[in-house]
Amino acid sequence: AQSGEVAADPQQYDQAYLSPVTIGNSELMLDFDTGSADLWAFSNETPASQSQGHERYDSATGTELDGYSWSITYGDQSGAGGNVYTDKVVVGGVTATRQAVEAATSVSASFSQNIDSDGLLGLAFSSINTVQPRQQTTFFDTVRPTLAKALFTCDLRQGDAGSYTFGYIDSSKYQGTVTYVPVDDSQGFWQFTAGGYSVGGDNATSGSVGTAIADTGTSLLYLPAAVTKAYYEQAGGRYDNQQGGYTLPCNGGAPDFSVAIGGKTFTVPGSYIAYAPLTTGSSTCFGGIQPDTGIGFSIFGDVFLKAVYAIFDVSQGSPRLGFAAQ
Ligand SMILES: CC[C@H](C)[C@H](NC(=O)[C@H](C)NC(=O)[C@@H](CCSC)NC[C@@H](N)Cc1ccccc1)C(=O)O
Questions:
Q1: What is the whole-number distance in angstroms between the Cα of residue 55 and the centre of ligand 1?
Q2: Is the distance from CB of 167 to CB of 2 less than 8 angstroms?
Q3: Is the pLDDT of residue 201 over 90?
Q4: Which helix (H) or strand (E) holds 322?
């Protein structure tokens, strides 16, 4: 049975975390994304004008799926599309011998501009993979029958390298016990229900956050507008229309944010929520908590995930998420 571990290296401000992946003879840095289900990469088929500075997948080592294509759009209106190959993909020593690899023939500007990232490795449910005419499986679903345990874990860190593991849980990476909650995979996401919250206190008892997804590919923590408003009232923040979000003083006074999941309270340190100075040297920061207005659910992105050890587990038949304090 296979199992393995791969580093998750933070970009500036922990905006995303990138992991080394070998596809055929190419070694690329991919953004592991539990909020989507396509493994795509810059390739020899991506126009040079769009791929300056990126490592590219050389599809010569792959077997083309003739007449297949993919096209994906993300919540931030970015996107990409192209052709499909099968090839050998290795992540932390775990090998998928015939993985669908989606070679980009077109990518949106924000992907071209982020030269550290050579593509995405989707870890949501394969039901939202975009390949046509026949949907393909994610790397995790492809290797799942060969894994020691049908699960993967995520240990993201503030401003430091974290890791993903496939096939095993590393109990040295968390404190205390793991709290499991059921996952509703009907929309293809790792969707769960979050409970009460508290700002600055330690017992998350007010209100209820509600439906949420665990999304390693989203930088921030998107919460219901009322919860976000309550946070910034205590944090001394304000909604800045020009910035398109809440901002707050960078000076270290931001209160912690706690949320109950499965009856256990998990706390995001205030320092994670003073996310990044508006411009270099500014004493005003863009907030790591923003409203989830219009999305339809909350998104527990990296600002939350780097405060916990997360277990994405399908070993019990129905999927579940495990959280433990880091
Ligand atoms: C607007 C498109 C909606 C959101 C929907 N797309 C999705 O839900 C896609 C799969 N997932 C996503 O757009 C989001 C999760 C749902 S948000 C509504 N996660 C993936 C995103 N963080 C990946 C990313 C990484 C780095 C840079 C940019 C984007 C669709 O295709 O209908």
A1: 23
A2: yes
A3: no
A4: strand 320-325
Q: Ligand 1 atom 17: the closest Cα is on which residue?
A: 75
Q: Report ipTM (2 d.p.).
A: 0.93
Distance 33 CA to ligand 1 centre (A): 9
Ligand 1: nearest atom to the Cα of 124: 10
Please tell me if the CB atom of residue 14 comes closer than 6 angstroms to any atom of ligand 1.
no
Are 99 and 38 within 8 A, CB to CB?
no
Atom number in ligand 1 closest to CA 37: 10
Both tokens of 324, joined, read: 């433990």
Output phi, psi for 231, to 5 deg.
-65, -50
**Whole-angstrom distance, CA of residue 215 vs CA of residue 156:** 12
* Residues carrying an active site annotation: 33, 215
Nearest to 88 by CA among 174, 24, 158: 24
Tens-place pLDDT, residues 309-318: 999 999 999 9
For residue 266, give the nearest of 297, 309, 211, 218 by alpha carbon: 309
